[in-house]
Specification:
alpha/beta, 5-stranded parallel beta sheet, 18 helices
Length: 518
């Protein structure tokens, strides 16, 4: 067995030579030389270019080039057409340009293999000037290329969107009361995508949203300070995107007429103190000058402490230290951190309502990783869950009811004590559980058609959808041993990769360059 290393030259099954640019848990990210794209591969899908020696790049044999073209030919059902097209190509602007040699001649631009059902019609994608719609489509495709959840085209790319929408709107805290919910499903069923759909719908409905993916180490419910900092750095809403979301919310609430005195009866002392300080700083004209520091304290950044920032502010004319009460969300005292986390969530939900939003929707994904914790962290995790549960059930009388909804993405493992406890809390507090099923082949192929429609929009492609391409890519994934847990993400990545291989998204033209449409 060989060990992949960054910079190592490899031969990729069916795709030719490449270079390892990044190691991954299952294998490596490889830059494919022929097609100038990066693909995430398992280790058994490649081999060193040379088993012995210094692993210097070896010259690809002609047989390997032909294997690559044969694979593409097999997928698109046009065996031999690339070589014929290359031989028949002319210098005409309307001719389809193809190559069979991966090494370009000087001053000659490489074009990837493309389909040519009719030689007189071009299937090459035109480099037209970019418009906002196409730009967003390309950003979405870029996320899919790397197996990431796309921020755009959520409705278009979501299977069963109407069902998720109905569940989401039933789960939002419309009446102003806190709620806890779960999104449950095995690996590879789309929990992260469903969480993205929930946030998208929440924004459309007028809520602020915040998200975090726990990793059981740096970001964990057992570490409330880092968790809150990650959450507050992600806060956004429909028409509300700013580098200082917490400060902006306070400023909006103050503009809407809220004062420290009017919120004092909520018993959210940190909210009251922070509002009083920000109101003072705004009146004196210092919020813009100290924006980063103020935001750092409000979101619990490790870069700034409340003591340091208050002290620095007190050196300004007409500001005195007793007046300055900026407070971080999480205390240093370990025994207070669980309650501090709850107060931070409630305060942000209340503040969002004061700032003109309906409330706050929080998603906490990858909860299943919170299992291999130390004994002390496990105890802290369970304490956080119990404190949240008490509030969600309406038993915590020290804090006001709030328009807060918290969604946990989990595997639904009852053998996991923390996961099982979340299940109980949801049932005890009128929470809801959305269960995701394993994807079937038909659903993946339907998604492929949706992706192709986006591809057409992005690159102005006229070629009709070919189900054969998606079928063949799916077969390749099955033959390579991907199971339900990894099939969906790999299928999406490889399907987009093969679309790139066939139609070759052009480089963005340089400023002033003449496009093919001109």
């Amino acid at each position: 067995m060989w060990t992949p290393q960054v910079g190592m030259k490899v031969e990729v099954n069916g795709m030719g030579p490449g270079t390892i640019v990044k190691l991954t848990p299952a294998g490596a990210m490889v830059q494919i030389e022929r097609f100038r794209l990066q693909v995430d591969l398992k280790i058994d899908a490649m081999r060193p270019a040379e088993i012995s020696g210094n692993n210097q790049p070896s010259s690809p044999k002609l047989e390997k080039k032909d294997e690559t073209l044969d694979l593409i030919d097999e997928i698109i059902g046009a065996k031999g057409s690339h070589r014929e097209a290359a031989a028949a190509s002319t210098t005409s602007d309307t001719a389809v340009q193809t190559i069979s040699d991966p090494k370009p001649q000087p001053e000659q631009q490489v074009q990837r293999p493309v389909v040519q059902p009719q030689p007189q019609q071009s299937t090459r994608i035109a480099s037209l000037p970019m418009d906002p719609v196409r730009l967003q489509a390309r950003k979405t495709l870029e996320s899919l290329r790397f197996g990431l959840v796309p921020n755009g085209h959520i409705e278009q790319l979501t299977m069963g969107f109407s069902a998720i929408k109905d569940w989401a709107f039933a789960s939002f805290p419309e009446r102003g009361f806190q709620r806890m919910h779960k999104v449950v499903g095995p690996y590879g069923t789309g929990k992260s995508h469903t969480m993205a759909v929930l946030r998208y719908l929440a924004e459309q409905a007028g809520y602020l949203v915040a998200k975090v993916e726990v990793d059981g180490n740096a970001i964990s419910l057992s570490e409330p300070a880092r968790l809150v900092n990650a959450l507050w750095n992600s806060v956004r809403g429909n028409g509300f995107e700013t580098e200082s979301p917490l400060l902006s919310l306070f400023e909006r609430a103050i503009q809407y007429g809220y004062t420290p005195h009017s919120v004092a009866n909520l018993h959210l002392t940190k909210l009251t103190d922070n509002m009083a300080t920000i109101q003072l700083l705004a009146r004196m004209g210092y919020t813009e000058t100290y924006q980063d520091m103020i935001e750092g304290v409000l979101n619990g950044s490790e870069e700034y402490t409340a003591t340091e920032v208050n002290s620095k502010l007190s050196k300004e004319p007409n500001l005195f230290l007793p007046q300055l009460k900026l407070r971080s969300p999480i205390s240093r005292a370990v025994t207070e951190r669980s309650h501090d986390l709850l107060e931070a969530l409630v305060s942000c939900a209340v503040l969002s309502r004061m700032a003109g939003f309906k409330g706050l929707v929080v998603t906490i994904d990858e909860f299943e990783v919170e299992v291999n914790l130390t004994k002390s962290k496990q105890a802290q995790l369970m304490e956080v869950i119990e404190v949240l549960g008490s509030y969600m059930r309406g038993e915590n009388r020290s804090l006001p009811a709030s328009p807060l909804a918290v969604y946990f993405g989990t595997l639904g493992q009852i053998t996991n004590l923390a996961d099982a406890r979340l299940d109980q809390i949801c049932k005890q507090s009128s929470g809801m559980i959305y269960t995701l099923g394993t994807w079937q082949k038909e659903q993946r192929l339907e998604l492929a058609q949706k992706i192709y429609t986006l591809y057409q929009q992005s690159y102005m492609l006229d070629n009709p959808y070919s189900g054969k391409i998606a079928e063949e890519v799916h077969s390749i994934m099955e033959n390579r041993g991907y199971d339900d847990s990894g099939m969906l993400r790999q299928f999406i990545k490889w399907y987009v990769t093969f679309l790139d291989m066939l139609y070759g998204p052009p480089e963005v033209p340089k400023h002033g360059a003449k496009s093919e449409a001109n």
